[in-house]
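thought: fold this chain, then report.
action: predict
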Amino acid sequence: MFQRIQSVFLILAILISFAVFFFPLATFSVVGHTFDIFITGVKNLDADSPLDFKINMIFHLVIWIVIIIAIIATLFLYKNRLLQMKLNRFILMLNIIFIVLVFMFTDNIKKQFVKTLTIDYESVEVTFGTATIIPLVVLVLIFLAGKFIKKDEMLVRSADRLR
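observation:
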């Protein structure tokens, strides 16, 4: 199981996936106040800030947890390569959805700041954090694992034809 290269890619994807919980998705600078958006919620970096808001990140959190669980399941389904390939495609799709949601969500938050505080759109600075890059790395690792799973399946099928 762990001697296959796709298992190494899947294990790396699992380990890197957990890093999303420790790094911010984005940092907003609004009227001199700074907010970090994590997958678990908002952290106000300025203790004396009069701006206080709550952002519901539960949908993003659920999608990311499903991705992690699916990667773990894919790792342990090494005997059923066809199911592994299907699950791999599902993970890729979910990961792309997650990435798109993060970018849409940060744009919506920026628009909310502009609307609520009646400030200029350019005065809200958004800096994407490390946790925004992590899903892209996981996407590449899952893609590579899928290629090697398919390669394994083709090898087994060619060996079956020789018998």
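thought: worth noting. The CA atoms of residues 113 and 124 lie 8 Å apart.
final: tokens above.
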